[in-house]
Design brief:
Strand content: 15-25%
Function: Catalyzes the NAD-dependent decarboxylation of UDP-glucuronic acid to UDP-xylose. Necessary for the biosynthesis of the core tetrasaccharide in glycosaminoglycan biosynthesis.
InterPro entries: NAD(P)-bd_dom (IPR016040), NAD(P)-bd_dom_sf (IPR036291), UXS-like (IPR044516)
Strand order of the largest sheet: 3-2-1-4-5-6-11
Number of helices: 9
CATH topology of one domain: Rossmann fold
Keywords: Cytoplasm, Decarboxylase, Lyase, NAD
Shape: globular
Largest sheet: 7 strands, parallel
EC number: 4.1.1.35
Bound molecules: nicotinamide-adenine-dinucleotide, uridine-5'-diphosphate-xylopyranose
Mean pLDDT: 94
CATH superfamily of one domain: NAD(P)-binding Rossmann-like Domain
Helix content: 25-40%
Pfam families: GDP_Man_Dehyd
Low-confidence stretches: none
Oligomer: single chain
């Protein structure tokens, strides 16, 4: 069956699934690979996938930012496998679906080793597309709102080509993800691979690394530790925050449908960093100080997804509001920091 690309062209039918599927010994389970599945979003995705008894889940992760701890409830389960693997090396598996999430998401981590970040996005995605082609699997890429760069169009629609610095300190990630999208579409057009591209906007929730440097995790950890909330200048820059359970729901709907995307998955609720700090202050520690600190180069000044396409073709929209999601993350951080509520 040819797939409908977002630009209306139809492509060759996908390669036939692995001959294994026709063998009489074949388990009829769906074999799902989640690269980066030991990470924040990936481990929540694994939790949801494992709820379906017809799913066998394999996680491939190099633990650069993820942790086995995020998957401890599944280790040893007969339908679950965890392998230490770096996606910049080829991977030979028999699978039916690939959720390709492997890439450090926190700017502090993806800037730590920029060459490795772009290798992960380019060579890692090439390896996963090669795997999809070999076994006839469908593949979903978790791309990012960063492909829009410092957007001149607001809110951002999927048809916006972006405003990205090709040689900046964030380019390893922003351009790396753009090349990953390009590779996805080239394999789709040239080899008929069934692709799905999600452009994920800022996502938060339990299991974020406490010190991974992203704004929501920073503010909550700072408030719980009684440290000043560090608003990076100018403080008027905006982001929109999607709770992780909404994000996982969107990714699974995209994988199960026939849309190539790209499709924005995010919460259109837009806040300045000062507003976010004030909300965390009010909800967690009303006497905490808020201080302005220096920012880093090329920080986008505004970001808000237009999610009309996700609503229309996926029947998806976020349900959890920021003021509902933050307390759930606070509870998780208190537990992990040993600061249970008195
Ligand atoms: N969380 C967000 O706000 C957000 C926003 C946009 C896009 N995304 C994308 O979603 C995906 C997951 O993000 P996250 O927030 O869960 O980040 P995360 O850092 O928690 O998870 C990434 C996972 O990938 C693994 N990984 C990194 N490089 C790897 C490599 N070379 N080989 C194998 N595994 C590797 C890490 O160890 C980690 O487990 C990423 O692709 C990220 O770019 C996230
Ligand atoms: O302590 C902090 C940290 C960050 N910030 C600000 O908060 C905003 C968001 O910064 P974050 O580091 O949380 O995240 P970013 O928006 O830069 O990237 C995020 O969204 C796009 C995804 O692809 C990335 O994976 C995700 O990390 C920035 O304007 C930053 O300057 C603060 O004000 N204080």
């Amino acid at each position: 069956m040819a797939t409908n690309s977002s630009n209306g062209t139809t492509t060759k039918p996908p390669p036939i699934p692995s001959p294994l599927r026709n063998s009489k010994f074949f388990q009829s389970n769906m074999r799902i690979l989640v690269t980066g599945g030991a990470g924040f979003i990936g481990s929540h995705l694994v939790d949801r996938l494992m709820q379906n008894e017809k799913n066998e889940v394999i996680v491939a992760d190099n633990y650069f930012t993820g942790s086995k701890d995020n998957l401890k409830k599944w280790i040893g389960h007969p339908r679950f496998e965890l392998i230490r693997h770096d996606v910049t090396e080829p991977l030979f598996l028999e699978v039916d679906q690939i959720y390709h999430l492997a890439c450090p998401a926190s700017p502090i981590f993806y800037k730590y080793n920029p060459v490795k970040t772009i290798k992960t996005n380019v060579i890692g995605t090439l390896n996963m597309l090669g795997l999809a082609k070999r076994v006839g699997a469908r593949i979903l890429l978790t791309s990012t709102s960063e492909v829009y760069g410092d957007p001149l169009v607001h809110p951002q629609t999927e048809s916006y080509w972006g405003n990205v610095n090709p040689i900046g300190v964030r380019s390893c990630y922003d351009e790396g993800k753009r090349v990953a999208e390009t590779l996805m579409f080239d394999y789709h057009r040239q080899h008929g691979i069934e692709i799905h591209i999600a452009r994920i906007f800022n996502t938060y929730g339990p299991r974020m690394n406490i010190d991974d440097g992203r704004v929501v995790s920073n503010f909550i950890a700072q408030a719980l530790r009684g440290e000043a909330l560090t608003v990076q200048k100018p403080g008027t820059q905006t982001r929109s925050f999607c709770y992780v359970s909404d994000m996982v729901d969107g990714l699974m709907r995209l994988m199960e449908g026939d849309q190539t995307g790209p499709i924005n998955i995010g919460n259109p609720g837009e806040f300045t960093m000062v507003e976010l700090a004030e909300t965390v202050k009010e909800l967690i520690k009303p006497d905490v100080e808020i201080k302005m600190v220096e920012n880093t180069p090329d920080d986008p000044r505004q970001r808000k997804p237009d999610i009309s396409k996700a609503k229309q073709v996926l029947g998806w929209e976020p349900k959890v509001k920021l003021r509902e999601g933050l307390p759930l993350m606070e509870e998780d951080f208190r537990l992990r920091l040993g600061l249970l509520k008195k």
